[in-house]
Batch of 2 targets.
Target 1
Amino acid sequence: MGRSYLTVRVLVLTVSCLVVLEYMSLLQSAENADKIRPSIFCMLDNHGVKQTHFLQSFPRDYYTTELLGADANSSNLFLLPPSPKVAVPTLNVPVNRSTLPECPMIPPNLQGKFNVEIDEVPDFAELETMFPSLEAGGRYSPSDCRARHRVAIIVPYRDREEHLKAFLFNIHRFLQRQQSEYGIFVVEQSGKGPFNRAMLMNVGAAEALNQYTYQCFIFHDVDLMPEDDRNLYTCPIQPRHMSVSIDKFQYRLPYDEIFGGVSAMTVDQFRLVNGFSNLFWGWGGEDDDMANRLRLKKLFISRYPANIARYKMLKHGAEKANPERFKYLYSGAKRISKDGYNSLKYRKISLELKPLYTWILVELPKLKP
Ligand code: BGN
């Protein structure tokens, strides 16, 4: 009786010790995992399985820091002569922020979902007084910490002044809450011919890099207003499609490969796929061509969860669809190395550092396929 009682006690003690040991080792590994990749959002995949979504778990200098603006002077990329001699202002070298502490990974003043203001937008003169911390050209960096990424927001544009006003009103407040270091580049196509959204984005990339060592681009339609500031406009590890759920599409992704609306790419990713094709004149297909380029170069489209990556779309008339888009989409793989950033040509009519944005007016030539 006495011996078996002792055996039971020894067994209980041993099991308790094992449980405590296991618990401690679990705690340890969880702590180490957090050190490697701090998690911010939790997502559910299609099967309802919980996945951790990692944002910016990489250092600030992860991206190429070489002066990519030099590209614009290389033989591959040039302005169509004769280009009128416009004084090209460049931005001042930013104040030395290296002594500031790095901004926190999760910006402390986020609001989450907020009401997008589209009905009562102040006029430009008033808007310009509302963002005193902006530098010329619509540049911003937080004053009390060093932003984690340098982001160029590229907005292809023509003849949508009301949209531009609403966009600027909403986006500056949004990005400043995110403690982002950014510049806004509005690239306007001159003339009345078919719009070439993709080529304007190539121009925006080249011109932004001429100004500053941006690490990534966010290509942004002017009529899309983000509705939740947890949708962080940071440099992505894989190209990120940002406008996942839009009110116009009942907040549903129209199809898996869509890369239009708002999308983010690092400078390196952009260069790897040779930017956008220059051949898509009129509505449609240029974003699908980019999705094909990403796949060809073994990059993946990443997305934030749909309840966060939400957008309101401003109303506008339908643009004329490009009847040639199917042809160019099918032949895209053959052209990736010669049609894109390395074959871009444009005539820069004007570049102005306006208070709220950098305005670049260009004439786009029809390039041979
Ligand atoms: C698709 C367009 C995209 C556009 C989305 C959302 C084409 C190519 C034909 C296969 N693609 O149909 O460019 O972003 O709709 O509007 O038209």
Target 2
Amino acid sequence: SNSRRQLVAGNWKMNGDKALVDKVQKQFAAATLNNMDVVICPPFPYLGLFDGKVKLGSQNISQFESGAHTGEVSVAMLKEFNCQYVIVGHSERRADNNESSSLVALKVEQVLNAYLTPILCVGEPEDVRDDGTLFDYIAAQLDTVLLKVGISQFADIVLAYEPIWAIGTGKTASPAQAQEVHAFIRGHLAKQDNNIAANIVILYGGSVKGNNAQELFSQADVDGGLIGGASLNPEDFLSICQAAN
Ligand code: PEP
């Protein structure tokens, strides 16, 4: 919370159906959420069903532009469906699909080249937090992308801090824990560019619900959230958005 424009993104993961698309659209048709961005990231087949009341993001992207890459989806295709954001480097993709930070960096580059906005996810597993190497771990995840695209491109990136131990577990990071890492991330970028660090939007993700969103979003360096489970309930998701508004 601060002068930065707040953003709340819902990541449906491999959940939802056409009926949920309708419910979300009805829920948000009447809502007035000014001065903030609401983004829904449904599975690919549903992107074309949305009518423009919320912004759209995808959950993944190919690092290639087009061609012989069976099963992949390109940035150009997303643009045809008015998709403006792309989640890159979600921990589930890093785990399920062995996405390395260098592959994540290629995907970020691909998204930036298409003038879409990457939502770049970083975050530590529980053992890393326990052994005290949290900041080194997050810095390394950021540095791989920084080396590839350069600090100036971070003007067009949204970051999401998602501690893996808090994703889908109901174990939310405390507001102080989130703030500590968000401030670290901003400070890390500030070593290269103060202005970009001050303006970049950093979302928190990990078991954000209607009843804890307000306190998390009120932290100085938390600029909204990336919401998994609670984004599948349109009422809960709307109340989370209102907490950022
Ligand atoms: C996520 O998958 O990005 C996420 C934050 O999930 P959840 O809100 O369910 O913890």
